[in-house]
Amino acid sequence: MSITEKGRLQQWRRNWNSRLRARRIDGANCRQYGNEAPRFAERLWVPLEQLQYAVKAGNSKQSARIIHSWPADKVVPIEGLQTIRACIQHWRDGVSWEQTGIYDQMMASIREHGKVDRMRTLDDIKQRYQHLDRLYQTVVAAGGLSPREALIKGNFREEGGTLVHIGPDGAPYFGRKGHHRLAMALAAGFAFIPAQLGVVHVDGLAGLADLRQRPTPP
Hints:
This protein is an alpha/beta fold. It has helices spanning 8-33, 82-91, 97-100, 102-113, 122-142, 148-151, 179-188, 208-211, and strands at residues 43-47, 53-54, 66-67, 76-77, 163-166, 172-174, 192-201.
């Protein structure tokens, strides 16, 4: 799904480490919250109509962590995120990548950090977005985003997928990982996406139940 996926050895190491982490986190959560407690890297099926906001509340290694405070001041509308906005303009509205401003954004990041996702030049950026265009066509033809296990053999649960946190209101929040995958789904008008569980606010635990159910095709 991404040109930045890990190599085979890196994937094996991540899967092994993830199983160890899951054993520890799942066990602790179940002892405190019962059998329906959040599980590390578990897959959610998130209705896009419910996914309106994004927040940086934790990373993928903190998946299933139950939190008691919520960074409400960091919550922003998803379509206000520059990468999401640029992708939707390009794929849905036909605006060129250059006109969306994404190339300028990426070059600014490269000048600041030296490289971004192994990209160092404008040509690297253009190749990346050409690749994303091909991926988008594949996703549209498939009619939806695939779970991680269908994309990477042996992938542990939904680890590496689009990250979604559960807020104190029980609603899903985009965790700022998986921008391009989410943008593809939004541009294509999909109803649901598979996502990796991020952190869960203790007051939002009840919101997990519905998001665990895979939608039935109409």
